[in-house]
Amino acid sequence: MIMLKKKISLEDVLNDYIASEPNPDHAALDRWVSRFPQYRKELTEFTSHWIHMENLPPHTDAEDLSEDTLVLRAMSIVGDHIHALQSKKQSSQAEMTDLLTEAKRQNLDIQDVADLSGLSVPIIAKIARGFLDSSSFPKVAIEHLAEAVGRNTEEIAAFLQRPMKPANDLRFRAKEQPKLPEMQEDFFDAIRKDRTLTDEQRTFWLSLEKM
Amino acid sequence: MELKRTLTTMVKPLTRRNSNGDLYTRAPVVESQIAEALQLDPPTLLKRARISDHNVPGYFQEECLVYMVREYLSRGDHSLVNDLFEVLISRCAGFIYRRFNISNKHDREDAYQEVVSNLTEKIINLETDKADFYQVKFWFGLKCLAITEFGRQVRRGEEIKASVSFEDLVEEGDIVEPAMQLEEVLSREILAECREGLLVLEMPQREAFILRHFEGWPIESKDSSKVTLSTRFNVTPRTIRNWLSEAENKLRKWRAGREI
Question: Distance (Å, rounded) from C-alpha A12 to C-alpha A6?
């Protein structure tokens, strides 16, 4: 039980504390300290700061910031954070080289990717190996794939332009590795031929062909 | 069209657990708002997000907005993320700023910006599920951040004044004549009158005074498991009594000054 309590983070305890106790009174503090003795010091400090904050009189500074200024300053901070996140992502994230490896990072297998993107396992397998002509992909398919594997549409579009690749991780019954197709297949032709898609899925994808 | 709806209405479940070890769960109204929001194209989503009156049909709660910020962040649409964040901030900027009744204007603004920064960090970090609580009880999460930052400001103020601590001025053996019975909590009438003068008190005496007289915290206790003022500040009960006496003397002078 003690080991379980240790794993509960202080942040979760404080969030639940403030959400559960309408007023930061001493009795409430005693209850929470007895539940989480490992956070006695932190709970006590937090409670005293909470009480302190609630009881101070409002400041009467005539030069207080307006709401518009508050929002502007906040958005400057938000923008900095998002920019930093983008930079970090660009520098640390490797170019997407394999669709199924990317999916695995999200704890998804090929069936999950198929379900999330509204395509079938055979179609996803063809996409992963570059068997489909990238220029034939409708925008919606790229968006669905991006959403499925957690990448943006530009990255998926770039990935789709990669050449065909053999299945290095598969074993074959034949003595020789199967040959790659002579040319890439059109996306909509692949949809038409795929018997594992439902009628609804096929109808949906083919409705995009003439767009 | 049905296919797209199936994909985009998949509301991702929360994964973080509360202090009882149970998974956090969103309110049903938030779940349905998220499911609805996921079906909207970005311009319509933004238009709906900008409805600021919660009584107007189509209003999206802050918990829903947090989800949508993270959703579009994962899709790489940073422009919409920025717009949605602006909506969220505009709803809570005043709330955050007003938490900090700190007399120093620069400290107040600094505290406000720290809370915004911490909130942003939690929401945009897709590698953790710390934003889950903000999809369940946004305003409590925000209040928690504000209190934590307030505490940081208080501690910083104490460090700055550490070279001239009250304990240096009042030795353990000194007897400070009490202005009134310190074992008794002051009456509500006197407290209401003193509230405005609290800022004349320095830390940590101010906090000790508030905890004692506004919340009735005991100075000491024979039960070592109980939280007291002495354990809170890690000083002896005598020191606490000295602080309280000094605080009351200062407030008495402040009240006298007002009456002139």
Answer: 12
**What letters, b where the CB count within 10 A reaches 16 and e where it falls short, cover A11-44?**
bbbbbbbbbebeebebebbeebbebbeebbebbb
Largest CA distance in chain B: 82
The rounded radius of gyration (Å) of the Cα atoms in chain A is 28
Give the residue ranges of DSSP H helices in B161-236. 166-169, 188-195, 205-213, 229-233
Q: Which of residues 93-122 of B touch A (CB under 8 A)?
A: 93-94, 96-103, 105, 108-109, 112-113, 116-117, 120-121
Task: Yes or no: say if B116 and A78 are a contact pair by the CB < 8 Å rule.
Answer: yes
Token pair of B252 as six digits: 């008495």
CB B96 within 8 A of CB B115: yes
Tell me phi and psi for residue A185, to 5 degrees. -90, 150
Chain A CA closest to residue B147: A50
pTM more than 0.80: no
Q: Which tens digit of pLDDT belongs to each residue from B1-15?
A: 344 434 445 799 999
pLDDT at B138 over 70: yes
Give the nearest chain B residue to A113 (CA atoms).
B7
CA distance A150 to chain B (A): 6
